């Protein structure tokens, strides 16, 4: 008989999704043998993840509370020719630094193996092969190494470069400015995102809803500093830089997407789990962590077809892959309306007029905006979003909405 694997669960990649899964599994199923393998020197890389308070349940907010570095009771948006709009909805941010410090402490205290500086060369559903020639054997392996381009998905991008800045004087902001679109438009829809981290410290991100994922880091770096000067802020020091290219879903063949995974359990962006219109991934990462942890704590629970011998290797990997795929398919189906909106934004609106689509959306009540971000829209909400004076030509909008191919690619629900 083959030797018993050293671990029950191995997680390839120590980003947000896998780190949260490891944390939550050890909360719900103490004693689970967990190994987290990350190629970088820290968990989480160099990122800031934000979420709207209503994206998560009270229980979810409670268990990730140790990771929250900043929280505000409301948030603002700004569009050209309009007064600043305050949305009365809570907003919070998690940093890679806090994720690493807090998660590492808790994982190690719970007996988890955390291997930093260990690049993953390849993997299977039950084995992680590392670049140093080693391997990790587990009853199941989750691949959470970030987004991988997929021919089964049709995507646009939200791309950004952010600078954390130290200022000579107080900036005066009382809450995050999550979308300042009263700026010159480039490459499609451009806005600036500003988080007040301390009275004299800001994170400013120059952000684009664009067809191309290419980043001109030099130009964006200068635009961030120019924006700060135009707001009257004197920068004394650049403390940190981060950048990213987030996928925004337009359409796709979800059946082909999961066939291409070949039974490999995946998480986060690797599993296509992100808000299709904002690119935000934290809420989906928290939800998946809950799904996996509940199942690991009670594998006999209903909800996923089970095979004989599911608690013996490689049955755990097979059943975990089924669990995650079933969850991701449910999310995909619920997100169909958002993909249709994305097609209107990217295919019906001229690149230099995309800001009008977002301005049109932000005419809506605070609670509807919160439900939009939390992916909890009712039929009445959806109708209200698409009614009113259209910001794009009707014919072009209809053509874009029904442009998806196949029964599962994002037609209106």
Summary of the model, kept short:
The chain is built from twelve helices and 16 strands. By secondary structure, it is of the alpha+beta class.
Structural notes for this entry:
This protein has helices at 16-28, 58-64, 96-109, 217-230, 254-261, 282-297, 315-334, 336-348, 354-361, 366-373, 379-386, 394-401; strands at residues 7-12, 34-37, 48-52, 68-72, 75-78, 85-87, 91-95, 113-115, 120-124, 127-130, 135-143, 153-167, 177-180, 189-198, 201-210, 235-252. A hairpin with a 4-residue loop joins strand 10 (127-130) and strand 11. The protein folds into 3 domains: 7-71 and 92-149 and 253-334, 3-Layer(bba) Sandwich (FAD/NAD(P)-binding domain); 153-250, Alpha-Beta Plaits, CATH 3.30.70; 336-401. The protein is built from 12 helices and 16 strands. It is globular and about 70 Å long. By secondary structure, the protein is α+β, with helices and mostly antiparallel strands. It has a 7-stranded mixed β-sheet with strand order 6-5-13-14-15-12-16. A 6-stranded mixed β-sheet has the order 8-2-1-11-10-9. 33% of the residues lie in helices and 27% in strands. Helix 1 runs parallel beside helix 3 (96-109), helix 6 (282-297) runs antiparallel to helix 7 (315-334) and helix 8 crosses helix 12.
